[in-house]
What we know:
Elements: H1 6-13, E1 29-32, E2 47-49, E3 66-68, H2 69-85, H3 90-94, H4 100-112, E4 117-119, H5 120-130, E5 140-142, E6 146-148, E7 154-165, E8 168-174, E9 184-185, E10 192-195, E11 203-210, E12 216-221, E13 224-229, E14 231-232, E15 245-250, E16 253-258, H6 266-278, E17 284-288, H7 298-308, E18 316-321, H8 323-329, H9 357-375, E19 378-386, E20 397-402, H10 409-417, E21 423-427, E22 436-443, E23 450-459, E24 463-464, E25 468-469, E26 473-474, H11 480-489
Parallel strand pairs: 16-17, 17-20, 20-21, 21-26
Antiparallel strand pairs: 1-19, 2-19, 3-4, 5-6, 5-23, 7-8, 7-11, 7-14, 8-9, 10-11, 12-13, 15-16, 18-19, 18-23, 22-23, 24-25
Amino acid sequence: MTAKTYMYFLLCFFFALSTMKxxxxxxxxxxxxxxxxxxxTYVPDVQRSVDYIEIPDFTFEAPPExxxxxxxxxxxxxxxxxxxxxxxxxxxxxxxxxxxNDLYDRLNDLVKSSGASVSVRNFxxxxxxxxxxxxxxxxxxxxFKITEFAKSKHVYFADILLEKQDTLYxxxxxxxxxxxxxxxxxxxxxNLFLTLSxxxxxxxxxxxxxFNKVENLRxxxxxxxxxxKVHRCKISTADNSxxxxxxxxxxxxxxxxxxxxxxEYRNSLxxxxxxxxxLKSRELxxxxxxxxxxxxxxxxxxxxENLNTNARGFxxxxxxxxxxxxxxYMPGKNLWMSTFLPKEWLGADVEIEKLSQDIAxxxxxxxxxxxxxxxxxxxxxxxxxxxxxxxxxxxxxFITIINSKVGSAAINATAFTKSITNSITIGENTSGGxxxxxxxxxxxxxSRLKLKLPTKIVLNKDFHYEQxxxxxxxxxxxxxxxxxxxxxxxxxxYQFEY
Length: 498
């Protein structure tokens, strides 16, 4: 089976790279047969031989308290095979703090020290503890508890506003009693965050990005180090529309609010897609993605293409093919269900002739690849370079509002807006669940622990791992649309106020 096969088509469901079947060139992408520099830390080799090992069928049954020693050893081997051949982040995280071999050793030690039966709770906790340095927003372990291996940095701000005056940063507003207007900030530039400013001026918020909760920040004003109280960025608690999406016109400003991209709301989201064509001549669009945790990236891509012709979204993509990944898609094995895969896909006994043409094609190719992999089992990376032009045709101004609850496909939505010439983002950083995606589920036969793991790497030069997409302007407000509107209407006199 060639590289441009069912995995390309599956992208229509997940990342939605194409609405046309299997033709990479029609979407202005090209396949590479080498590893480009940008992917060197993610992909170890283009292809390598592996053993073909049957992975367990998926089950919805809960884990047992104990399993036999031999069964536990079998699950260790299955876990090793899945992580080594069926997880796209294995190579990257193996070089960034996760010792996978130590995980396997510790599980084997647990089994050896447990006697005739092994506690599945201990087995699960060993996996969790040894993957503690994993930071992948699309990876998850489900057993007696649900463990998501995701960490994101959040921004914390002081109630202090600074203005850059030549080379100095002077306080122009403060709600902290010992820090007043006119005082000079002399701390690190890492604690300065550009915010909405009057024309020809630069105003900054004072704060920090951190994985952990921060209550105080030690900074220097007028030569004295002081403790400054900080709070979580207020836009993290802002509201969005209670509709799937809505559009509103106020003067020359068009507000487009999208609260979810969940496939469950496909009819409404198709209307959102069509809205892109209607807005092509609008002067200024404010695109509110606040709190949108994702769904299907096809919808924002098509919306952006209808508005702007181009929706680039990524620079490079690497899709993992292997016996483990293939089996996760195999009819009869992937009973984990997904809103992206139709129910008729799941039954091994469903006759292909009775399926729709599209689903029949994908199902036939999955089965054909499985036959090939049984004969010549390999791990192969399908490496794709995006040749879509970086900028599109929309000539108006475009503002995207983002916050830390923007995740998954909504991060893709943010990426697509980078193709709009006069586009900026305002708010706070998004979550970090972008680089590793297109998830599948695996199951360990005896412990019945379930693994959700991504199989595709997506790189965008503007995406900062563990921080997400950073806004062009940071905004510490629970009412971002109001602040942005005031900034637009009063460009010379606007000043953010605490």
